[in-house]
Amino acid sequence: MPQHPDGEHRLPVAPAGAATPPPPPRPGLSYSAPAPIEAIPPTPRSITWARYLWFFSIVAGLAVLGGTFLTRTSHLERLRTVVEEMAPGGDADAVTTSAGIVFWGSGSALLLLIVLQAAFMGAASGRRGWARWLLAPLLAAQVAVMAVARAFLVPEGDAGNYVLLLWGAQVLLGFVGLLALLMPSAGRWFKTRRNRP
Questions:
Q1: How confident is the model at residue 197 (pLDDT cuts 50, 70, 90)?
Q2: Per residue in 40-93, pLDDT tens?
Q3: What is the DSSP letter of 9?
Q4: By the 8 A CB rule, do 40 and 168 touch?
Q5: How many CA atoms lie within 13 A of 129 on its CB side?
Q6: What is the pTM of this model?
Q7: Which residues are 9's β-sheet partners?
Q8: What is the full DSSP assignment across 135-189?
Q9: Residue 7 vs residues 3, 4, 12, 120, 164: alpha-carbon distances, Å
Q10: Rounded to 5 degrees, what are φ and ψ at 9?
Q11: How far is the C-alpha of 107 from the C-alpha of 101, rounded, in Å?
Q12: Are 174 and 57 in contact (CB under 8 A)?
């Protein structure tokens, strides 16, 4: 940029008759307004606690299923005895098949409930309020399945006491986590997503 003798900087002046460059083109008209930026509200403590409680509830349930799977041979042997007592004189293959159906059916039902609870808790963490209402019947169904599976999956002795202790912890943690999802602060958090523009 040329400097004037008095020390000031001045823009160069185009000589007379020189063509001036055209101004830059203006942007076209926009017929759509930009999408508003959604303000994500802070996660309340009740939701944070619910996540932790359901996480440990699911871990307790998976621990029972993992231990049951690792000791499946002893469970199947015990179930064969139970089936033979219920239907004496039955075919050995039929007894083995019945014991396997009872064992794997009970474990699969519990695993399915745990997977559904994890899925609905994930949906609730994504601010979908309908998911928390489905956790209540799932928890009730879990208690019912545990009551039936207790005769098939709970061994005798100290190992059975550990299974019952983990099952009790699973149900208790899930119930308290469900209560946390029903707190007023959690309800307001879910409504912010439902009422967003």
A1: very low
A2: 678 899 999 999 999 999 999 999 999 989 988 888 888 888 778 777 776 778
A3: B
A4: no
A5: 14
A6: 0.74
A7: 3
A8: HHHHHHHHHHHHHHHHHHH--SSHHHHHHHHHHHHHHHHHHHHHHHHTSHHHHHH
A9: 6, 5, 15, 74, 91
A10: -90, 130
A11: 10
A12: yes
Q: What's the rounded Cα separation, in Å, for the pair 98 and 79?
A: 9
> For 149-172, how does the pLDDT look when each residue is reduced to its tens digit (9 = 90+)?
887 788 777 778 899 999 999 999
Q: Position 36: which residue type?
A: P
Contacts of 182-186 with CB under 8 Å at 24 or more apart are 182/132, 183/44, 183/46, 185/44, 185/45, 185/46, 185/47, 186/44, 186/46, 186/47, 186/50, 186/132
Residue 80 is encoded by which pair of tokens?
């064969």
27 DSSP assignment: P
- Residue 65: both structure tokens together: 């299923």
Residues forming beta bridges with residue 3, ordered by sequence position = 9
- Please report, in angstroms and rounded to a whole number, the separation of the first and last CA atoms in the chain: 52
Residue matched to tokens 């061994």? 155
What single letter denotes the amino acid at residue 41? Answer: P
Q: What are phi and psi of 37, to 5 degrees?
A: -80, 120
